[in-house]
Specification:
By secondary structure, the chain is an alpha+beta fold. The protein contains four helices and seven strands. It has one domain: Gcn5-related N-acetyltransferase (GNAT) (Aminopeptidase). The protein has a seven-stranded mixed β-sheet, sandwiched between helices.
């Protein structure tokens, strides 16, 4: 776990790794339609990529800035690396970036089963749920 490196994905190779990870986790593993992942926001978003000591991508997440607010999304951890707090570390890295950018609030739409995970990180559940495929998504936010 100490050999995990976090970077802001900027190179074509790093961004390709982010997309491949999302394809594997969201589309293949979770059955979310691929067109939902391609929302047109990737080029204007900030991506954090975590890689192991061999340079293999193991986690990623995205921050999209809208005025003074940020949207966290596409937070993914490779199956073999779950339970190592990488999701938490990705969220913390994205929050650090948001603070540097002087954002006032962050929001996200996680799967309902992740509500406690995000609540433990200080996010509050807002009203309303929506379904995406077989998943129920919540709306959560946090003032920073």
């Amino acid at each position: 776990m100490n050999n995990i490196h976090f970077v802001i994905a900027q190179s074509e190779e790093q961004l390709k790794a982010v997309h491949e990870m999302r394809l594997e986790i969201f589309v293949k593993e979770q059955g979310i339609p691929q067109e939902l992942d391609k929302d047109g926001l990737d080029l204007k978003s900030i991506h954090v990529l975590a890689s192991n000591e061999h340079g293999h991508p193991v986690a990623s997440g995205r921050l999209t800035i809208q005025d003074e607010n940020g949207i966290l999304s596409r937070i993914a951890v490779a199956k073999d690396f779950r339970g190592l707090e990488l999701g938490k570390k990705i969220v913390k890295k994205l929050e650090e970036i948001a603070k540097e950018k002087k954002l006032k609030q962050l929001s996200l739409s996680p799967h309902a089963y992740l509500e406690k995970f995000y609540a433990d990180l200080g996010y509050t559940t807002e009203s309303g749920q929506k379904s995406v495929g077989k998943y129920t998504l919540l709306t959560m936010s946090k003032k920073i």
